[in-house]
Design a protein that fits this description.
Layout lengths: L6 E5 L10 E4 L10 H4 L3 E2 L7 H7 L6 H13 L2 H13 L2 E5 L8 H13 L2
Parallel strand pairs: 1-4, 2-3, 2-4
Helix pairs in contact: 2-3, 3-5
InterPro entries: YeaO-like
Organism: Gluconacetobacter sacchari DSM 12717
Protein name: Uroporphyrin-III C-methyltransferase
Length: 122
């Protein structure tokens, strides 16, 4: 595979940046207080988000971060239909993964970006 374009991540509440490329919301739930116009989305790929059970278990607790990463990566490996969609976008150009969590270090977009780097950008 050829070297894919950059993958970034940022909060959906932050204003769009010129270098965002495709803006993909990777949350299962729509973020509160954000209109579809304000989000400037290319795609809402809720199918790639962590399962409801995993999201509830994690609860954005940094103490559970290692377990969350491991479990979410296992979900990603089993979710080829959604993975194919995001990989196709990455192969076309820059992608910004958007999330609603307040925690900028412990969220699904961080895990997804790293997983894509490890599994689909060689």
């Amino acid at each position: 595979m050829t070297r894919a374009a950059p993958i970034q991540f940022r909060r959906v509440y932050d204003p769009p940046e010129p270098d965002d490329g495709a803006r993909v919301l990777v949350d299962r739930l729509w973020p509160r207080g954000v209109s579809k116009e304000r989000a400037h989305l290319t795609l809402w790929l809720k199918e790639i988000a962590p399962s409801a059970a995993l999201r509830e278990w994690f609860g954005h607790d940094p103490e559970k971060w290692a377990g969350f990463q491991e479990r979410y990566q296992a979900e990603l490996s089993a979710n080829q239909a959604a993975v194919v969609r995001i990989v196709a976008l990455v192969e076309q150009g820059p992608v910004t993964l958007l999330y609603g969590a307040r925690d900028t270090r412990h969220n699904e977009a961080v895990v997804l970006a790293a997983w894509l780097d490890d599994h689909h950008r060689r």
